[in-house]
Structures are given as C-alpha cells and as structure tokens.
Automatic annotation (TrEMBL):
This is Enolase-phosphatase E1. It holds the Pfam family Hydrolase. Pathway: Amino-acid biosynthesis; L-methionine biosynthesis via salvage pathway; L-methionine from S-methyl-5-thio-alpha-D-ribose 1-phosphate: step 4/6; Amino-acid biosynthesis; L-methionine biosynthesis via salvage pathway; L-methionine from S-methyl-5-thio-alpha-D-ribose 1-phosphate: step 3/6. Its cofactor is Mg(2+). It comes from Streptomyces himalayensis subsp. himalayensis. Binds 1 Mg(2+) ion per subunit. Its EC number is 3.1.3.77. SUPFAM superfamilies: HAD-like (SSF56784). Keywords: Amino-acid biosynthesis, Hydrolase, Magnesium, Metal-binding, Methionine biosynthesis.
C-alpha cells in the first residue's frame, strides 16, 4: 500500500530506517571501540573531546575518572547500545575520520537513495534526526556507496542539539528550528515506536518503517502507518 503525503519536510532516522542496524553494530561499533583509547590519549585537549569526557564523568558521577575509566564506560555503553550523547560524540569523531580516510563507506538500503533524490527534486526539504552525532551523520551521508549525498540534506539533528528521540519536546524543538508554523507539514520516518509516538504527540505526521531482519520489525509500529520500503511512500509539496 502506498501512502501519499503533502508535506514541506521529511525527517529521517538512520538505523533501521535508511540503513541496516547490523552495519552500524558489526562495522562501526568495533571500529570506534578499537580507537577510543588513542583518541582519549592523544586528543583530550581538543574542545569537543574534552566536553564529551566531562559529560562521561558527569553521567558516571565520577569527576576524577581517568582515561582508562572513561574508555571502560564507553565500551560498556557500546555493549548496551546506550544512546549516551558523549558516546555518540566520540564515535562521531572517530567515524568521521574513518570515512574521510576511506576506511569506511556507509550503508543505505537500495530503495532509499532513489527516493531521497525524488523527494529532493520535488522541493521537499530533507533532514536527519539520529542518536548518532551530527558529525557522524555528516560523514555518513558524504561517504555513501553512491557518493556524496549531503547536498540532498538541509539539516542534521542529534540528541545534543535537539534532545532525546523519545521526547515530544525534541520534535517541537526541531519544528521550531525548521520554522514550521504547522507541525502537520512535517513527516518523520523511523523504525522505533517510541520515537514515532513522540513525534506524533508533537503534531507531526509519522510512518513506521518495517524492514525484515531489523531489531524492531517483530514489535511493529503500533497505530502508525507503516511502510516496508521507501517506495511505499509518495511525497509531494503543494505550492499553494
């Protein structure tokens, strides 16, 4: 079944929606795990790294935690798949460098990039909202198998500049940032029911993306419209 929307903007989740969760867990997580120690040892004075380290200490309640303790906490959060902002910040730094060096190439499901190109050509603004940091998102879209997709994307949001993904306030903050007077002109695509619920509570339109093999496939998307592929979603933008 195809769903038709007349919206101004589409906001995209990444894991399980545009891209395989398995790629992130099996490729990117080990890549960052292997490089956290060097990052903490060699670049601790850089403002972004120092801020993330301070956030880790705050979350641990250990203001004097050293680099070894910080690394241990990061790896434990990786094992838990915890969406901790400082973890995502430090992962983003490592991944961005890996993408820039050519060590990494991002993953997109086959139906995604053609749909993004169609929607962008139709005048729909595309944005990303992911638990991964803005730096990681930027590197992800810039280093796709089909080349640099970043020109298709108007804005990037994460848990630091927008807030937790299961909080309606985060979606209200994004709507404000987009200058959206009517949140009903915004469409959010995600595989996670809690995120979809939060977006709908903020007045957004929602579609749950259900892809076989993804972690939330069996759980379903509750009362939200659902799509198996982006081809199930037709998006236009009225000019009146």
């Amino acid at each position: 079944m195809t769903h038709l929307f007349d919206v101004d903007s589409v906001v995209l989740d990444i894991e399980g929606t545009t891209s395989a969760t398995g790629f992130v867990v099996d490729v990117l997580y080990p890549y960052s795990r292997a490089r956290f120690a060097a990052l903490l040892a060699e670049r601790s004075e850089e403002p972004e790294v120092a801020r993330a380290v301070a956030q880790v200490r705050e979350l641990l309640g250990e203001p004097d935690a050293d680099a070894v303790r910080i690394e241990k906490a990061l790896n434990a959060w990786l094992d838990e798949d915890r969406k901790a902002t400082p973890l995502k910040t430090l992962q983003g730094i490592v991944w961005a460098e890996g993408f820039a060096r050519g060590d990494l190439t991002s993953h997109f499901f086959p139906d995604v990039v053609p749909a993004l190109r169609r929607w962008h050509a139709a005048g729909v603004r595309l944005h990303v909202y992911s638990s991964g940091s803005v730096a990681a998102q930027r590197a992800w879209f810039r280093s796709s198998p089909e080349g640099d997709l970043l020109p298709l994307v108007d804005g990037l949001y994460d848990t630091e500049n927008a807030g937790p993904k299961q909080s309606p306030e985060s979606y209200r903050a994004i709507a404000d940032a987009l200058g959206a007077a009517d949140p009903g002109r915004l469409l959010f695509l995600s595989d996670r029911p809690g995120e979809l619920d939060a977006a709908r509570e903020a007045g957004w339109l929602t579609v749950g993306v259900r892809r076989p093999g993804e972690p939330y496939y069996e759980q379903g998307v509750g009362s939200h419209l659902q799509a198996g592929v982006f081809d199930d979603i037709t998006i236009a933008r009225s000019t009146t």
